[in-house]
Each structure stands twice: as C-alpha cells, then as structure tokens.
Amino acid sequence: MKRFGRAMALAALLVAGGGWSGAAAQEHEPTVEVAEDLVAPESQHEANRNQIDIVHHIGNANAVEIPFVGVIELPHFRPVHIGGLTIDFSPTKHLVYMLLSALIVAVTFIFSARAIARAQAQGRPAKGFAGAMEAMALYIRQEVILPNVGHHGDGFVPYLLTLFFFILVMNLLGLVPWGATATGNIAVTAALALMAFITIEVAGMRSLGAKGYLQTIFYLPPGLPTALKPIMLIIMTPVEIIGKLSKPFALAVRLFANMTAGHVLVLALIGLTFLFQSWTVGILASVLATSIMLLELFVAFLQAFVFTLLTSVFIGLMRAEH
Fold first, then answer.
1. Which pLDDT belongs to residue 179?
2. Relative to the CA of 6, which of 107, 200, 206, 265 has its CA 20 to 30 Å away?
C-alpha cells in the first residue's frame, strides 16, 4: 500500500504540472523527478522480484517442472524441413502432460473394467472408485451421447467417452501444483476439433451416402424454380461450407479460451501480492485466487462436457436428413 500511495502522489504531481506554463514546469521539474524516483524500484533486482511471468506459466516450453526435483530439460531434436515447411518434433511440456493424461485415462478404465467384471461375476454391483467411473460413463452414454447422436449411435460411444475423459483429465492436471494444462494450447484443442470434424463428416458420408452428403454442401430448397437454382447454389454453397468449418473452430477456441482465461486471472491476482508487497493485498488476492480456482474446477468438468455434447449434437445433425 505504501508503493500505491507513492504512485498516487506522482499522479497528483503530474496532473498539477499539466496546468503550469512552460517556465513554471521547468522551474519545478526537479520535484517531478524526485516523485518518479520515489515510485521507481530501487534496483533492477527489485523490479524483477516484483514481477510474475504469466506467459511462462501458461505457455508451452521445452522443460518440465517436477516438485522437489526442479526443472528438467526435454530432449531437443533437429527440425525436419519438408519443402518450405519446418517441423520440430521435439517434445514439449504440453505434450508430456497430454501423454500423461492419456495414460491416466487408460490405466483408470482398465482397472475399473476389471473391478466391474469381478463384481458382476460375483453377482453384485461395483462399488468404490470403479462404481463411480461406471456411473459417470453410463451417464455420459445414456444422457449425452445416445440422445444426440440418434439411433444406432452405439458405435460412437467409445470415441466420445474417450474424448470426454481425456479432455477432463487434461483440464484437471492444469489445476495441480507444478502442472500444465494441455488444453490451454490452441494446437491441442485444434487437433481435438479436427478429429471431431473428421468423425462428423465421415459419419455423414456413411449415413447419407454420396448424394445425400453432397446435398449438405450444395443445398437447394425443395420446390425451387429452375431459374433460381444457380443463384441459390452460388449463395448457399459458401454458407454451407462456412457452417461446416465453423463447428470445429468453435470447439477449439471455446475450450482453449476458457482454460487459458482462468489461469491468467489466477496468476494476475497472485501477481498483485508481489506488486504491492502488502499483507492486506496478499490476503485479499489469495482469497480471490482460491475462489477462481474453485470455479476453474467446475469449468474443467463443464468444458469437457460441452465439447462432448456439441460433438454428439454435430454428429447427430449430420447423420439426419438435411
């Protein structure tokens, strides 16, 4: 709060100095310089100590932070040049946490499936953690996937269930200390959206056939006069194509933006403590940051649910008649 008071004093001096004449401003220039010295950090070390690098904590990197071990540098590979394109296959922090999420999902459901199979063999329902996983999977299947995908939608259940739990674990790992949110990387969410887009379009091709699928691109309302058909094709074809591309774009941006925004807000609130160096500000910032973290826990489940729900809806819409 002391630094805040100095900043307010500098602001008052600058506002008052704006109404002076040029000669008066030159006469009182040393006073303004003294005020600036009072607000400025005493050294570069103090200036660096009062800063928090938000981009470092939410961005990707070629190193992983491990508790009580420190920073571990990941191997760096030579970039591959394909024509004018340069591709770097070096592993990154987000890749490590994405693979860790896949491993957690696989191990969780392999052991849960075995526990459920043993319980069913004994003629009793599964209990404990395995029972909770079964209940969650059944809820997503019965209430989200099948009602939206439509009849004969059981073939899409494994993919959509994997999608839900994979995104959920990636979101939750970002809330763990020293963790990272892979879904806070637009490349990750774009890849998930691309896979959803391919699934949606292939589902439409298989359900509608070649002629029916082409009608989802070159759309003509029934009963349209022949003279208006070329005009309608010129107008509606770009609209239909944009509509197809906007679905994966919305999926990717929504997940990326929601997971990034929460982390930025938490880090900004924590950074107030280092900026003002005040117990009062620190306590208030910690309370607000804790509240945002609890909200982020809810958002982690919500965004995994929304991504799966919208993918199911898009598949169902594509499989239905245009």
1. 87
2. 265
pLDDT at 191: 96
Q: What is the pTM of this model?
A: 0.80
pLDDT at 101: 97
pLDDT at residue number 67? 82
Distance CA 54, CA 261 (A): 11
> Any idea where the domains of the chain sit in the sequence?
41-319
Nearest to 41 by CA among 75, 8, 6: 6
Q: Which residues of the chain have pLDDT under 50?
A: 1-40, 47, 322
pLDDT for 138 equals: 95
